[in-house]
Each structure stands twice: as C-alpha cells, then as structure tokens.
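Progress note, sequence design subtask.
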C-alpha cells in the first residue's frame, strides 16, 4: 500500500483507502465493479505547492489502483487540485459542478468520468464496513 502513497497530498490518503477497499473485494465483487465501470481513470492531482501526483484506477481489466501513469492508455484523464479531489471524495461537491466551474478538467471519454463518483462512493461504503 505504501507504493500508492505520495507525501504532501490529501488525495494520497484517499487513494490508499480506495486501494484497501479494492483489496478487500472478493474476485466476484471486483469483476462486478469492472463490468459496471469498464474504464481506466487517470487522476492528475496538483497540491498547494504546485506538485503533481498521478494515480490510475483500472476498472477495465483487473480492478486495481496504481500510482503513476495509466498503462494501457487511460480512457479518461481527470485533472484537478488536491482540495477538489477531497471534496469529490467526501461528496461536498459533485463532478458535474466541479467540471462546470473549471475545478475539474477531463480529457478523453467524459461520459466515463461521470462514473467516478460511484467508484468513490463504493469505496467509502466499503471502508465503513
């Protein structure tokens, strides 16, 4: 799990929690999530020091969270600040509002980006169990 963590990012702890949630899934649960989502998200998060960290959520093949660039290429790349990601993950702001106000930028399959909230919510629910 420590290979997911990047110092200086609030998003880092959220990604570690998401990684733990995915690790807790049975193979059937993981495959169900992959089947429902069918995509690779690349998250490019910038902190207050203007440093960037990149995480990949692969829900196309194996249902994994990785630090670094997507391989194969991401279906959608989401670019946002550390604060915006924290607000998305906590439900304080929704993706559509973040996108429309310029806090979230998307490249690639924008419709797939709408599924990120469900992925974050699923992990949040799993973490509460």
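Output:
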């Amino acid at each position: 799990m420590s290979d997911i963590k990047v110092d200086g990012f609030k998003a880092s702890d959220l990604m570690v929690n998401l990684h733990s949630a995915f690790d807790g899934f049975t193979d059937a649960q993981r495959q169900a999530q992959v089947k429902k989502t069918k995509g690779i998200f690349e998250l490019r998060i910038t902190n207050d020091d203007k440093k960037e960290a990149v995480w990949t959520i692969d829900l196309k093949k194996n249902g994994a969270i990785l630090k670094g660039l997507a391989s194969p290429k991401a279906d959608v790349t989401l670019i946002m600040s550390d604060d915006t990601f924290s607000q998305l993950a906590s439900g304080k702001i929704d993706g559509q509002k973040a996108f429309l106000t310029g806090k979230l930028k998307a490249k690639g399959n924008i419709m797939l980006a709408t599924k990120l909230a469900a992925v974050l919510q699923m992990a949040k629910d799993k973490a509460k169990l």
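DSSP finds six helices and five strands in the chain. Work on this subtask will continue into the next period as scheduled.
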